[in-house]
Every structure is written in C-alpha cells, then in structure tokens.
Amino acid sequence: MAFMTKPFVIGSLAVLGAMSAAPAMAQQTLNATGASFPAPLFELWFQELEQNDGPVVNYTPVNSTTGIRQLVELEVDFGATDRPLTPTTAAKVKRGLVQIPVVGGSVAVGYNKPGCDLKLTQKQLTSIFLGSIDNWKELGCKEGPIKVVTRSDSSGTTLAFTKSLASWSPEFTTRVGEGLKVSWPVGTTSAGNEGISSTLQSTKGSIGYLNVPGIKGSLQAAEIQNKAGNYMLPNSATGIAAMESIKEAGLTPEAISNPPGRDAYPIVAMSWLQAYESGNGMQAEAIRDTFRFMLSNPAQSQADNLGYVPLSKALQESAMTEVEKIRE
C-alpha cells in the first residue's frame, strides 16, 4: 500500500529472513477467514508477506461466527475472531487449538459539539444510545438535541461497542443486545467508519461510535469512565493498558467487555488468531512464519497508523511462545 514506509519494508525483510529458509515454504498458500475488525491491518501484513516471498495468505473477512464454524469444521488453515473461543467451543476442535492475541483496537465515542468537553459515565453512554438521554444539557453541555449516529452495516466495531454496553446495562441487553449488526432504538445510520466520521463532521450536535482514525476535523473523542472509575480517552497507551489488564484478568468475556485496569480505556476489541495444534502437515511452518511476522515489532509498529493498538512487549513475547505449539 502507498503508506508503507521504507523502515517497515526493511524491518519486514529482516523478519522474513529469520523465518524458515526452505524455498518450498516461501510462497506456500494459506486459507483463513474470520473477523472483519482487523481486516485492514491484516491486508497490509499479508500483502507485505507475499511481496517478500513469505506465505501467500488468502484471508476472507466475514465475521467471527463464520470463522469459528469453519475452524471447527476444519475448512481453513487458521482463523481470526474478536473474542477468544470459550473452552466449550475450543473442545470441539478435534486437532486441538492454539489461541493467540494479535492486535487490539479502541472504539471511540466521537461527537460534534463545539465548546463541550464530554466526559461520560458508562450509564450515561448507554442511556444516550437507548435514547433516554436526548439533550446535551443533561450532559453538562449547551442545550440542544443529541443526534445519535450508528452503523448500518455489519461491523466488528459495532460488535465491540455493543458487547461493552450490554455488559454495563441489563436494559441495553434486553432492548438492543450485542452483535455485528443490531436494531438501534434511536438515531440515524451510516455505513463504515468513514461514513460515520463524515456524518458526524457534517452534523452539529451529533454523537456516534467509530474507530480512532475517524476522530478528525470538527470531531472530538469523549472521555469514557472505566471500571476503576477513571475517565479515559482512546489512544495507544489506554488501549495497551486495557489489553494488559484483560490478560491479567484471565481473558474472560467480562474483562474484555469492561477492562479492569486503572488506566484502561473501557471499549476495546482484541483480535485473536486460532490455529490447530496438530495435523497441520506441510502447512505448519508456513502458519508459524505468518504468525511470527504478524507479532513482530515491524508489523506491530504499523498498528497505530491504522487506528489499532499494538500488543505490549509482554503480550508479544507470550504470544510468540504460543506460536511454537503449532505442530505438523
């Protein structure tokens, strides 16, 4: 892609050079499917791999559910999801399962209300998207109607956002629920993160959820109260704090939906790679090479440029250890 920097290419070549030197493995093809949330970053990584004689990865970004089904039914070489598989589902994978965190992402709450420095409790945020708070005055800002903007298309961003709000509010769970696409009780819709960003920028008094790069122009990101009671902006530091606290809490769904760390941003998605522990045959080394590259410093350094949260050094090292469990 055009925004790839020379240092990244050089670094990538170094990583690829450290991989298996066997020519037969260099252009081996892997088929994978799963989450759409990390797809833009995956596209960059897999393109770089192929251009530098690494494995050719055909990744189909559908959704986590389809990815899990195809993994369980042994239809792919590896999968990706926005949540780790539960022990019950993992047990259905007959060849054993290796689960590896690969990248995170914060879901920002963007708004277009000049003169308003917005800090929202979790209750206030859910109430806005339920329609029960509908005037900016209720949030300490200048009076005016709140114009909610939500996603119209199936989206990993929506999944992460609704999972958090549902975990915070029984009413939200009942009325809206969680998913890649939900029926919102309030507001207007727009497709894609860029669509949300554009609509918010052109609509005074609006608020919506989107990836961090979409916060531009007239938009600001709201500070959101986390589980520890602190108000946090979405950025790399608060995203990394969230992922580290999720890891420390045992990677539970509760921790992912509301990270417990003091400095954690509370609405995040962590994307996971899933591979078979055994039965990979000649594909095993190509899968390991692919995962090593995705977890490398050169690859992870590109995450922030696309609005994702790179893994901390501790998570990278832990994930690299898991990669070696992928066997023939």
Q: What key attributes describe this structure?
A:
328 residues; alpha/beta; 10-stranded mixed beta sheet; 3-stranded mixed beta sheet; 14 helices; 13 strands; 38% helix; elongated
Topology (SSEs and partners):
Elements: H1 6-17, H2 23-26, E1 29-34, H3 39-51, E2 56-61, H4 64-72, E3 78-81, H5 87-90, E4 97-112, E5 119-120, H6 122-130, E6 147-151, H7 156-168, H8 170-175, E7 188-190, H9 192-201, E8 206-211, E9 220-221, E10 223-225, E11 231-232, H10 236-248, H11 253-257, E12 268-276, H12 284-295, H13 297-300, E13 308-309, H14 313-323
Parallel strand pairs: 1-2, 1-3, 5-10, 6-7, 6-8
Antiparallel strand pairs: 3-12, 4-8, 4-9, 4-12, 4-13, 10-11
Helix pairs in contact: 12-14
Concise structural overview:
With 328 residues, the chain is α/β, with parallel strands linked by helices.
Characterise this structure.
This protein has 14 helices and 13 strands. It is α/β, with parallel strands linked by helices and 328 residues long. It starts with 5 loop residues before the first helix and ends in a 5-residue tail after the last helix. A hairpin with a 5-residue loop joins strand 10 (223-225) and strand 11. Strands 1, 2, 3, 4, 6, 7, 8, 9, 12 and 13 form a 10-stranded mixed beta sheet that branches. The protein has a 3-stranded mixed beta sheet with strand order 5-10-11. The protein is elongated and about 65 Å long.
